[in-house]
Amino acid sequence: MKILFVSLGCDKNLVDSEVMLGLLRDRGHEITNDENQAEVIVVNTCSFIHDAREESIQTILEMAAMKTEGVCRLLIVAGCLAEKYRAEILDELPEVDGVIGTTAYDAVCDVIDRSLAGERVQAFESVDRLPLVKTKRVITTGGYSSYLKIGEGCDKHCTYCIIPKLRGNYRSVPMEYVLEDARMLAASGVTELNIVAQETTTWGKDIYGEKRLHELLRALCRIEGIRWIRLLYCYPEEITDELIEVIRTEPKICHYLDMPIQHSSDRILKRMGRRTSRKELEEVIGKLRREIPDIALRTTLISGFPGETEADQEDLKSFIQTIQFDRLGVFTYSPEEGTPAAAMENQIPEDVKAERRDELMALQQRISEEKTGNMVGKVLKVLVEGRIPEEGIYVGRTYRDAPDVDGYVFLDAEEEIISGDFVTAKITGADEYDLTGEVLYEFTE
Ligand code: F3S
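^ thats the input. predicted complex w/ FE3-S4 cluster below
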């Protein structure tokens, strides 16, 4: 069959999509991007916040319309929206032929076979199941940079978050599976691994009795072909001295840490169910910067959490000003049905949430501008990702930039560079988020 696959939501979901694509390819199906030729359409959905749900529903509706017009015979809905709203999807969308939950994606081939035979399939397992699939997944991120998922689910139970209901409690992917996945990626030409999970820092605790991310990272560093390893979704209170040491000493690990902290006001952190305080956040960040002076720190924040006052907003502004994050994103709070925060009093009006978000982003923009300005004159390694033909320049990322969420470096180069190559570049200019530079050929491998 010719299969069109649409993946929505986060990078963890994207890894599930790539595994499903691998299984479909192994079964002899053909993956297509051509909507007119697709005989089966699979949509892997997201249900994190209101906007993500809207996008998922809109996509399913568009695909359903396509099904009624074209050659398509099956429409399958997988992922987080299917996990939460399977009954509604089946009741209200007769075009949908099958639904697959977040922990049953390894059944995708079977679901297609049974749906083709006329059954309207519901493939669901306990949200605490961990599918362990040994397949060479289809890399959808460009061939040289990939996400490596080391865990599933979360048991932090922050009061605003629906993820534990959609994805279960935290389960570490055992070391041998992570390493095999990484080796397969390296053998396919991947040079950058971006380590993901709902949270990466407690990896190992559930299966080995203690946190062992540092050991996993050391083993990943030994894989030939891997040049950069980047850590995303680290919980501040779970960062250990061993982890800091491995980032500091292993040359393949980028001096970069994504650490979503959500807020700084102790009152709001408590209401959010976070297990840290402003003082502890300042301490861990201080330690990271002392031990690894060139570390780039990224965080995400939530604006307008229920009960947030002007004083809390001022706290957050002073925190941002003090810490000077290298990268920072802000989301407005979205009440999610079934979470404790959605039932809290003092919900904040949308316009106030947006105003507070904009205020934080404007503050960060000034910090970011200063930070990128400080990079001018520096010599950095750049992973080249492509070329803008009209302008004749190349686009890449430094160790300070994670794919999709951070900035870029725009490079002048006299000789052709192949996407995926690492070059050494001198930074010659900067704006708020991005850099410009020129390739230094004498240092380029
Ligand atoms: Fe969305 Fe599910 Fe990821 S809700 S953000 S796709 S874990």
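Residues 19 and 127 are 18 Å apart (CA to CA).
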